[in-house]
Amino acid sequence: MIAPNMATMLAFITTDAAIDQPLLEVMLKKAVSLSFNCITVDGHTSTNDMVLVMASGAADNTPIKQNSPGFSALAQALEDLCRDLAFQIVKDGEGATRTMEVTVRGGATLDDARKAAFAIANSPLFKCALHGGDPNWGRIISAAGYSGAAMNPAKSRVVVGGVVIFDMGQPVRGVADKAGEQMRKDHVTIEVNMGAGQASFVAWGCDLSNEYVRINAEYHT
Amino acid sequence: MIAPNMATMLAFITTDAAIDQPLLEVMLKKAVSLSFNCITVDGHTSTNDMVLVMASGAADNTPIKQNSPGFSALAQALEDLCRDLAFQIVKDGEGATRTMEVTVRGGATLDDARKAAFAIANSPLFKCALHGGDPNWGRIISAAGYSGAAMNPAKSRVVVGGVVIFDMGQPVRGVADKAGEQMRKDHVTIEVNMGAGQASFVAWGCDLSNEYVRINAEYHT
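Structure tokens for the assembled complex are given below, as produced in the milestone run.
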């Protein structure tokens, strides 16, 4: 996971809810797995990322337990907050001009879906295609393929911004203009079906621009 | 392994030596593992790479056997040729202005050494530092660390063009100018010791430049 430039991401979350520490930790772990651990700017993992949550109990509520009414409300609020913060990191990626949400479905396992989603979101070739606004299915499919995740090419499918550009292992003709429009939006959604199972994973990333290179090559001069 | 642009690398090698097919195949596999499989331009594996070797036997030599005099000479020639061709691919990488040779030593296993070497050679952050000519040990060490390979930070070491910039887990002071000179050469050698064993691996890569982004983002317009 990437925190641009300073190679460090520190997140401090506070709540006035009364809740036991072990339960809050379970809640936070789930929220982080669905947010901060779903983002990438360049695949270069930072050395010291941290997400902390502190509960003061000042709300004077009946302490939240696993099945108490407040549990799902707080869990949802924590998840929403973490997603919002994580997405802001991607949006703020060095030189990012566009963000992407890569949803991989049909993975044989959750780990497979995760691997494929990050391979796409981290591929320098696809990140350049995103920068150029081109719905390059070849770069998406080949990244999913080399990720090591199980894939059934004959059942694979790629959808960009709701436009199916690759289906049953074949490119779809006549959709280049519509798909190109979708690829040139500020936020682009990409769905890939691996045709290998039921698992899914969502990763967030950004494009690779000249500005990324400038920031990370010329910082010293 | 990357073949720039066309997403395909096809290598055809011919020899007039008389040699049995199974033995030539063993020879080629070793040569490829030390050459074509050691290079990366952007980590985006191509879908259809191929290396073929054909032996006509026109040299009329006594057919080469495992222990015959011609064996090591032909094996060495094949290895040299494959290295030369593989290095040319890296040099010809999209927008490459500098090449790098990353030697990882002290790996717990060969696979660990390989993982660490490719993590460094593929890190967009380090590739940008190479482009900018900055001996950024933090980007090297963190890439080796996130590769998943076993590492003993207290024994780790980084050498750029013969200049030790990081040793026993600490940056070396007063070498920035000398190391910077080395980083601005056309071909930069980087040595990393993982302090975790005896295995080593050499990977070849290139820098990440604005021109890489231009070529891979604007090909469509």
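The mean pLDDT of chain A is 93. Strands of chain A lie at 10-15, 50-55, 99-107, 157-160, 163-167, 170-171, 187-193, 199-206. Further analysis is deferred to the final report.
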